[in-house]
Amino acid sequence: MVTWSLLMCVMLVAALLGEGQADEPQCGIMGSSSRRRRDGGGIRIIGGEDAGQGVFPWQVSLQMNGRHICGGTLLSNEFVLTAAHCLRSTNAKLYTVRVGEWHLQSGSGQDVAVAEGGIRKHPQFNRVRGKRFANDIALLKLWTSVDQAVDLSGTHVGPACLPPALSSADYHDYRGTDNCWLSGWGVEDAQANQLADQLQKVTGSIWTTDDLNAAWGRFSRFLPNNAVGFGDTATEGGFSACKGDSGGPLVCPKEDGSGAYDVVGVVSFGPFRCSGKPGIFTEVAAYRNWIDEIMESY
């Protein structure tokens, strides 16, 4: 009888502790309408193509005063990853995160506010002498959990996976990896200022360090240490991130063959007119420990 009573107490406590705590959805699951190729005739993202609804469920639109300013990556029901340079103000009330967005003009997604005090830029952002946009990474804590703000049944919202930390034994260097994807609502033309309405996508390989430095030539000394390169160097018919894509995700298939995707890079900066050199992305694995510390602190 004592044993049975003790068991019932343990079960009751466990139920109370779990009440109101929603399970995090499985990470890195791409929507089924993705085509694993690149059509050369597309536009937007600079050489991209239209993405189907829900193909990149982790893609969010970071908005300031109701206007899209940057992309971002949903990491969980409560956190979004983006670039530090996207956040010019520390006033969280100015920002919202739109999840499940597909067409910017129709506003098909759902806005979620950023929590007060929920803007966390990397403390060493832009503080490395001679390095452009060093440590260009930031986390946003959402005011309301996504699963409470949005009815996730039948929607196209879900997190990307985080890669193992650079310092861990499980670290995988994605440089040279094929079939990686960039998504965003960046401008259609580098000389224009018109964002794409429909979410864009493009697939390609991450540059090796040697090739990236060679492509940037004498300017490679300004590249941040923890960065990866992605994009075609062609001035005509190439593909690249551009204005409006900043902060957005570069994802690659996990090496375990599960079909899930890690967010490998965060769009940081690129060459003038978004062509001629690979775009530069903050390498997420180098900041995994920092990300974990912040997420666990709330």
UniProtKB/TrEMBL annotation:
Q: Which PANTHER family match?
A: CHYMOTRYPSIN-RELATED, ELASTASE 2 LIKE
Q: Which PROSITE patterns match?
A: TRYPSIN_DOM (PS50240), TRYPSIN_HIS (PS00134), TRYPSIN_SER (PS00135)
Location of the Peptidase S1 domain: 45-296
Which protein are we looking at? Peptidase S1 domain-containing protein
According to the record, the signal peptide region is: 1-22
- Provide this UniProt record's keywords sorted from A to Z: Disulfide bond, Hydrolase, Protease, Serine protease, Signal
Write out the GO MF terms: serine-type endopeptidase activity
Q: Which Gene3D superfamilies match?
A: Trypsin-like serine proteases
Alphabetically, which GO biological process terms does the record hold? proteolysis
Originating organism: Branchiostoma floridae (Florida lancelet)
